[in-house]
């Protein structure tokens, strides 16, 4: 009994060519996928500086992480004129757009309110209220001490 080697048929050859074609498409797709880059977040270690997350010093990373943590402790809500005295406040002083019923808002310890996205972006640059310049972290931390 000898080894029986079979000559490839035209069907075998076309399957092989199709397989190689799929492999080439897969490799090309992987190459494109590897070339697609996920955007690196941009942060503001100080109000006047803008840097990629990969360029921050360890100290700046810690400061930004603290800001993110403190920001998440600030109360959020939705704009509802007539509730909580918010009927007097008509516009966000950051974007200068009128509040609309149902807009997501954030309350600062000084009781100023802003659009959630506007104030969150602001607080990542400066941790002071844009209206009264009250340091938000000092007011927030003192509220924890009194409770």
UniProtKB/TrEMBL annotation:
Molecular function terms, GO-annotated: ubiquitin protein ligase activity; zinc ion binding
Domain RING-type per the UniProt entry, residue ranges: 92-132
Alphabetized UniProt keyword annotations: Cytoplasm, Endosome, Lipoprotein, Metal-binding, Myristate, Nucleus, Palmitate, Phosphoprotein, Ubl conjugation, Ubl conjugation pathway, Zinc, Zinc-finger
Subcellular location: Cytoplasm; Early endosome; Nucleus; Recycling endosome
One annotated GO biological process: ubiquitin-dependent protein catabolic process
Any Pfam family: zf-RING_2
Cross-referenced InterPro entries: RNF11_RING-H2, UEC_component, Znf_RING, Znf_RING/FYVE/PHD
Gene3D superfamilies documented for this protein: Zinc/RING finger domain, C3HC4 (zinc finger) (3.30.40.10)
SUPFAM superfamilies per UniProt: RING/U-box (SSF57850)
Domain of life of the organism encoding this protein: Eukaryota
Main location (coarse class): cytoplasm
A GO cellular-component term linked to this record: ubiquitin ligase complex
Physiological role: Essential component of a ubiquitin-editing protein complex, comprising also TNFAIP3, ITCH and TAX1BP1, that ensures the transient nature of inflammatory signaling pathways. Promotes the association of TNFAIP3 to RIPK1 after TNF stimulation. TNFAIP3 deubiquitinates 'Lys-63' polyubiquitin chains on RIPK1 and catalyzes the formation of 'Lys-48'-polyubiquitin chains. This leads to RIPK1 proteasomal degradation and consequently termination of the TNF- or LPS-mediated activation of NF-kappa-B.
Complex formation: Interacts (when phosphorylated) with 14-3-3. Interacts with the E3 ubiquitin-ligases NEDD4, ITCH, SMURF2 and WWP1. Also interacts with the E2 ubiquitin-conjugating enzymes UBE2D1 and UBE2N, but neither with CDC34, nor with UBE2L3. Interacts with ZNF350, EPS15 and STAMBP. After TNF stimulation, interacts with TAX1BP1, TNFAIP3 and RIPK1; these interactions are transient and they are lost after 1 hour of stimulation with TNF. Interacts with GGA1.
Protein name as catalogued: RING finger protein 11
Gene source species: Ictidomys tridecemlineatus
